[in-house]
């Protein structure tokens, strides 16, 4: 039998969780707080469930210093579901704003309002995507599937700047963002903060998305959530699946600017969207509905929320006033250890992305120029030492060491020692 303590797991997600949380989880699954029933069995509307939900929100708020004018939602959509949810929700808000403006000019003539609105939608509705890796590519493709490719503006496609492959983030002055004219501009600007497959992370928030007339920025933080400081105010929507840094698969967390919710913003009605040939999203992805119901519109997997809450409260207790900055220091240190070793043996290892955009979370590299036999040998040797989950994503191959929060410094050091040993062999 292989014990948990015998291995270090570097999988890209699902990913390792703190052992103390899992030990406690096995108990609460059987019997939560001596009630005689387990956490998967109690009602999501019970006082216990409400407390779990409130604690998880509080821990996330503490870690990321989320301001009061932001809401936290829990959904079950996965990161992929949020590719769709961001589109449905922000397009509906954009359309309603345009409708209200036209109605203010035209008055009660509904036919005339609809006629003008159709023209505005046809000519002006744009969603900007920064395509820097496989996941932002998928998100942009989902937007095109939902509302039509003519409305999707790929403001940058990193492959075009790198011989057809992901590996760089083109300079901002080369992006073709939809112009922000007064009252105009894109319905959203979307980017993936950390590309899990390609090992690319935005080093900082793009400065061209800042300013008084900043667009509504949506960011996918699935694979670098709670690993570094984030200035939440710069974003309209931040989302991420729990299954990397936060918890087990099952819940998706959305941090949302409250001004995007009623009464501050109203989405266009389903009838109006249908008249405009725009798609209407499922109710379980509707942010106003989920927010109004404190994420309990339908049955929320409370056990998953509990795990996430335990992980996040653990970080709050560990790092105190440093908040997520404390985790950032540890994450950066572990990533440096690995990258330094890869760079030291550059005749054996080649880091895939450009140095300026290397991910701290997913370290993607090739062994001996991608020689299939040597990469196989690398993985087999690693496995013998209990270093698991290092195979690169099936679409790109190579090696990927994921450096999520629950990967210990000890595990990282073991991996570094193996990288040294293999390079010298
Ligand atoms: N975005 C990123 C950055 C991801 O890494 C993933 C999954 N690995 C997704 C989105 C999709 O998430 P899910 O599988 O939960 O739909």
Structure report:
It comes from Bimuria novae-zelandiae CBS 107.79. GO terms for molecular function: O-phospho-L-serine:2-oxoglutarate aminotransferase activity; pyridoxal phosphate binding. Keywords: Amino-acid biosynthesis, Aminotransferase, Pyridoxal phosphate, Serine biosynthesis, Transferase. One of its GO terms (cellular component) is cytoplasm. It holds the Pfam family Aminotran_5. The strands form 4 sheets. The chain has a 7-stranded mixed sheet. Strands 11-12-14 form a 3-stranded antiparallel sheet. A two-stranded parallel sheet has the order 1-13. The chain starts with 7 loop residues before the first strand and ends with a helix. 43% of the residues are buried. The chain is globular. The model has no long low-confidence stretch (mean pLDDT 97). It is built from 11 helices and 14 strands. It has 425 residues and is an alpha/beta fold. The chain has helices at 19-30, 47-64, 78-106, 110-124, 134-147, 270-275, 287-292, 302-319, 324-344, 372-384, 409-424; strands spanning 8-9, 70-75, 127-131, 152-157, 188-192, 194-195, 200-201, 217-220, 237-241, 252-257, 349-351, 362-367, 387-388, 399-402. Helices cover 40% and strands 14% of the residues. Helix 3 crosses helix 5 (134-147). It has 2 domains: 55-304, Aspartate Aminotransferase, domain 2; 322-424, Aspartate Aminotransferase, domain 1.
Features:
transferase, binds 4'-deoxy-4'-aminopyridoxal-5'-phosphate, 14% strand, 14 strands, single chain, Aspartate Aminotransferase, domain 2, alpha/beta, seven-stranded mixed β-sheet, globular, aminotransferase, O-phospho-L-serine:2-oxoglutarate aminotransferase activity, EC 2.6.1.52, Aspartate Aminotransferase, domain 1, serine biosynthesis
